[in-house]
Amino acid sequence: MKLLDINLILSLILPICFVSFFLIILNRFIPTQNNSFTSILQGATRFNTYIFLALCSSLYGSFGLEIASIILSFTIIFLNILNITFYLIYQDLSKIDFNYFFKSIFKNPLIIASLLGIFINIFEISIPIFLNKSIQILSNAALPFGILSIGFSLVLNDFKSNFKEIFNASFSKFIIFPILTLFFCQILNIDEKIVPILILFSIMPTATSAFILARQLGGDFKLMGAIITIQTLVSMPIFIIFLQIYF
């Protein structure tokens, strides 16, 4: 599988863009506070890497992890830049200037790691055995610790007062996103073996790291915590439905 598979990349980038556009339009008719809106956008577009990798590995084996690595390489970069851009647009510009914007992008460890992985893959750079073993040990530990962090991030409060915001983010994430993903998979003639993995990606609950970004850039981090909690819980029956359809 080629790393630079344009159709595969577009099959996820385009749904993300359309979901963002949908929420922008919705916000015109059902407005929310700017700091809340940025949290809604994160909730609707970002994904939990740890759950995605765990499911790809258990359901699709090495093939699933190969496709997941391609997906993550580009979507992590795109989503971080997209969400930081929305914070720049919707927050007080005196707090977040363009210098801070570019620093936030190029100091983001997820973006750095993704760019480094793409660079190594494209130029087929061989990694020394000792370094490869060290990275493998760290990666084996990262997944269980990441899953543990999901449990620690669950916050059960303020649901009633934030119901509209949580609903908008979750409806966009679990209904609109997968429908658009399936649509673009058909339009772009994506391999039938890959389509379920892309659908699985589209129904991932939002990233736990979204809470950190919301707090750093002045978003509504309490709302973000509530969205993470609800989506993580709601995703469980949605995964069961996914398994019934594709297995």
Could you write a compact summary of the structure shown?
The chain has 247 residues and is an all-alpha fold.
What is the topology?
Layout: H1 6-29, H2 34-45, H3 49-90, H4 98-106, H5 109-122, H6 129-153, H7 163-187, H8 195-202, H9 209-216, H10 221-246
Helix pairs in contact: 1-2, 1-3, 1-7, 2-3, 2-7, 2-10, 3-4, 3-5, 3-6, 3-8, 7-8, 7-10, 9-10
Report on this structure.
Helix content is 78%, strand content 0%. The chain is an all-alpha fold. The mean pLDDT is 82.
Any idea how many domains? Answer: 1
Number of helical stretches of at least 4 residues: 10
Which percent bin holds the helix content?
Answer: over 70%
Oligomer: single chain
Return the string of H and E elements: HHHHHHHHHH
Give the terminus-to-terminus CA distance: 23 Å
Give the averaged pLDDT, no decimals. Answer: 82
The low-pLDDT segments are none
